[in-house]
Amino acid sequence: MKQFGKRVWTGTLAAAGLLVSTGSVLSGPSVASLNVCTDQLVMLLAEPGQLKSVSNLSRDPTLSSLHEKARQYPVNKGLAEEILVVKPDLVVTGTFSLHNTTGLLSRLGFEVEEFEYSQSVETIAADIRRMGRLLEQPARAEVMASRFERDLAELEPLACSRKPVALFYGARGVALGKGTLAHSAVQAAGFTNMAAERGYEGVAAFPLELLVQDPPDLIILPRPTPGAPALADEILSHPVLRKLNATVTGSFSRPASLNCGGPFTMQAIHELRALAPSLLPCRKAPGS
Amino acid sequence: MNRSRLITMLIVLGIAAFVLSLLIGPARIGPVASIEALLAGGNEAAMIIMREIRLPRALLAVLIGFSLGVAGAALQGLLRNPLAEPGIIGISASASLGAVLLFYTGLAGVSLLALPAGALTGAALCVLVLLVISAAQASTITLILAGVALASLAGALTSLVLNLSPNPYASYEIIFWLLGSLKDRTMDHVWLVIPLMALGWAALWASSRTLDALSLGEEGASGLGANIPRARVLVVCGVALCVGAATAVSGAIGFIGLIVPHLVRPLTNRLPSQLLLPAGLGGAALLTIADIVARTIIPERELNVGVVTALIGAPFFLWLVIRSRRELF
Amino acid sequence: MQLSARNVSVSLSGRPVLNGVDLGLEPGEVTGLLGPNGAGKSTLMRALAGQLVYQGHVEIDGRAIAGMSELERAKIIAWLPQQRVLSWPISVQAVVELGRLPWHGWRRAMSQADRDKCAAAMQLLDVTGLAGRPATELSGGEQARVLMARAVAQDTPVLVADEPASGLDPAHQISMMTALRQLAGQGRTVFVSLHDLSLAARWCDRLVLMKDGAIAADGSPDKVMTDTTLRDVYGISARIGRDDCGLWLAPLGLTEGGMGNG
After folding, report:
1. Alpha carbon of B169 to those of A62, A223, A231, B59, B304: distances in Å?
2. Which of A163, A202, A278, C197 has the most CB within a 10 Å radius?
3. B104 CA to chain A: closest CA distance, Å?
4. Measured in Å, how far apart are chain C's first and last C-alpha atoms?
């Protein structure tokens, strides 16, 4: 009897030891994210326990679509010291992040993966898959990516009297032109981006007068930050915008949904498409 | 030069600049169509552009330029220092700080009046500090150095407050506050500044006779029955109203109050009271022209108007300082 | 008008400068104020002109000046300070015209009467030829005359001038005193402080000698300029003589341990 009990006890200890020595019950590497866009993807794809740290910007509702979810994770300010404390197996960040920090982390032996800042809806699925590979969650990533690609492919041109024109306008007269994610999204939604059409690239100053001379059908404005006023909010109440009778203005898409690429970007595209009938006479497009 | 001839010339110059400013903009509307849209209506888009975009901009250039010119001339009269100017001696920067403190921290709620209230207070406090300094030490150098120190401090604190704001755009707006801009201003801004500036002009005009008497020094002026403390209060209030209102709406624009009185003074009999109106008119014209330059000098982009005034004004200031090592006027 | 001080005391920065001074100034005469440096001459003048805070009474024809507004006082007393300040290179004409400020004040334009008074003042001080020149470009003597012309243009019954002749060459000193005598001749009360003993003795109807914040002697030049007063107040010895124009004084040396021969 005593011998049997001893064997069970030893076996249990051995098994426990095995578990402890492999480090975790997880099936993938632990990861820390330094960039708000990589934050979104890791939060969507990582298993609980896999995500050690997200950037502090992930809790900012104007920049991060998953700001609610981000609250459950510890935050970092993108400093190398914080990563040293956390000791993740993998560090993900954006290519435009703090190069000093990422260089230092590489030299210290951490595995650092950089993601390009999403400029187009076309690259989002690939980014999802890549993140899935890195996190060793290929199945989950594949589901998300294929759904995105399918939704994208199913976006038919809007059946309206003509192609509606949209413009992202905000913060002291700045518009989003060619090469931005917002541009790609609004095009996918079936609109023409007025700024891109006029040859503006990136985030560019767009004269208010041009807006008046040739008003778009839709102007998308930023949402003011509650409790923190800035002059940038002035544009929301500019008398000129109120006088454009043929134009609908407002802050339609959820803030931040077009800041980073992810499934929420498709949500934003669908929301924009839904606005079309209120702008122009449109036949309800099938399946949208 | 005959005073009425000078004033007429400056008014003509100002009107010409004003009209030119109305006719220039990214939306190419022909001159005739522009004026028609402004006055009579017609084409809906042209009307909105002219009345809601170009008109407030041109009006503000004139109003702010006038106020800065008059404030500069009055300050120079009170401090008896030809280098005194709201931008250089830190009044504009202090006005910016006051506005930023009250507005971005949400201390004044999100009221439209937060900005001018803060700006007026900041400007008034700065003038008071400078008065105390210049009373203790009458030297030009001391005054200018104190002003420069105040300007630097105010600029640094403005940057700090903006960086502390949770609003993501706030820290970019430092450029507006320190270098000024008339872009996309509305008629609401015009109606806001007019009463404030009118009060400021009245206060400065009321002090002008005493400023004349001060040409003979404080004792001489006092012997002529001048009420010097009252003149100080009037100038402080007048400058605070003029510079505060201007800064609240356009950020800090410097050098107008330096360049214009200097250019205009030799054409008058040099008494401070005679300088006020020409300095104001000259300032209106100069700022309007500077704003036109800011919009046209780089195609497809717009400079901050304060950059243009600084590009003209700072070398001018340097030249004055070098020249004044010999004589001060 | 009669300008009188009764028991006037002034303290500056806690230090007593004037101690209970009594003085009466009459119209129609030039009264000279003399005394060594630090005697309190400028302070007394400032008190009489209502330019600083004092204890005691200063009255014009029995009316206290403390109760008057600054503007009212400026129409009665013209004050010419010792420091010659010109902040801007304004023309001589403009400087003199500043003297009319208390009279036309808020009314922007000057009347013909104002202009006439300015012209008369400039003529009296012989600066009419300098009318268009910037006052800052003039010589010391010319500036002194221009600033005096400003005070004269103020056209007041009382003129109080602090060392108007200092730093002037002899010719300019004489022309300044001549002008002052003319003003007194018009019935004005003229009170000037001087350093030059001879100039004071010869051109003033009455002399007031100050020492250590109090009046040491007061009367006609003959009565005031004596060996005793010169020794007690100035600490000098001088040869005093008389000719048909008046007294003359030639300082010889210091008394009491001085280096000169007494």
Report:
1. 11, 12, 8, 27, 17
2. C197
3. 5
4. 43
- What six digits make up the tokens of A111? 């595995």
Burial class (CB in 10 A: 0-12, 13-18, 19+), C112: exposed
Q: Please list every residue in chain C whose beta carbon sits closer than 8 Å to the beta carbon of residue B220.
A: 79, 81, 85, 147
User: Is residue A17 packed enough to be buried (19+ CB in 10 Å), middle (13-18) or exposed (0-12)?
Assistant: exposed
Q: Which residue has the tokens 């009307």?
A: B47
- Does residue C240 sit in helix, strand or coil? strand
Q: A119 vs chain B: nearest CA distance in angstroms?
A: 21
- List pLDDT tens digits, range C148-175: 999 999 999 999 999 999 888 888 899 8
Neighbours of B319 (CB within 10 A): 11
Chains adjacent to B (≥3 CB pairs closer than 8 angstroms): A, C
The pLDDT tens digits for A249-286 are 777 767 678 888 889 899 889 988 888 888 888 876 54
Cβ separation of C102 and B224 shorter than 8 Å? yes
B25 lies within 8 A of chain A by CB: yes
> Which of A62, A215, A244 is the closest to B168 by Cβ?
A62
Q: Are B177 and B99 in contact (CB under 8 A)?
A: yes
- Provide the number of CB pairs (under 8 Å) joining chain B to chain C: 82
Minimal Cα–Cα distance from A193 to chain B, Å? 19
Q: Residue A205 and residue B27: Cβ atoms within 8 Å?
A: no
The answer, for C72 touching chain B at a CB cutoff of 8 Å, is yes
- pTM of the entire predicted model: 0.86
Exposure pattern of A105-124 as b/e (b: 16+ CB <10 Å)? beeeebebbbbebbbebebb
Q: Which residue of chain A has the CA closest to B173?
A: A231
10 Å CB burial of residue C245 (0-12, 13-18, 19+) is: exposed
Edge-to-edge order in the sheet of strand C77-80: C77-80, C158-162, C189-193, C30-34, C206-211, C214-219
